[in-house]
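User: For a teaching handout, I'd like to show students what a predicted protein-ligand complex looks like in C-alpha cell form. I'll give you the sequence and the SMILES for zinc ion. Please answer with just the structure.
Assistant: Understood, here is the input followed by the structure.
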Amino acid sequence: MVAGWFTEGGDGSGFRLLGTRCSACGAVFFPREDAYCRNPGCGGGDLEEVPLSRRGRIWSYTDSRYRPPSPYVTNPELPWEPYALIAVELEAERIVVLGQAVPGVTVADLAVGMEVEVVPGVLYEDTGTTWMTWQWRPTGVAG
Ligand SMILES: [Zn+2]
C-alpha cells in the first residue's frame, strides 16, 4: 500500500508526495527509503522525510492495459479501466516518479516534456473505505 508516500496537506500546504533525503549526499528517494542510502558512492547518512516538488515534466508515458500488480489494489470483479501511466521527472530531486494520469486524460493528450502536477486521486473504493493515491494532471504548459 501507499501509506506514508504522500501527505494530504491538512495544514494548508497542499497535496505532496513524500520521499526521503540522505543527509550525507543529498540523494532523494521515492518510493521512500527509510533503511539506508542507496547511493553506492555514499557512506550513508540519516534519511529524512521531505515533500517532493509538486510539478515535473513528462519523461515517458504508456497505456496501461492490464491490471497492475501489487501493491496496487484493484477489485477483480470490476472491469479493468485502462489508464495512462506517466513517468515524471522532478528536476530539483533528479528522480523519476511513476503515476497514473487523472481520469479522462489519455496518452493522446500527453507529450514528452509536458508539465504536470501531482493531485490526489482515488485508487480504490468499497463500502465505507476509500484508498487515496496520487495522480498526474497536465498543467497546460507544453514541453
Ligand atoms: Zn547518501
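For the handout, you might add this sentence: Residues 22, 24-25, 27, 37, 39, 42, 45 surround zinc ion (CB under 6 Å).
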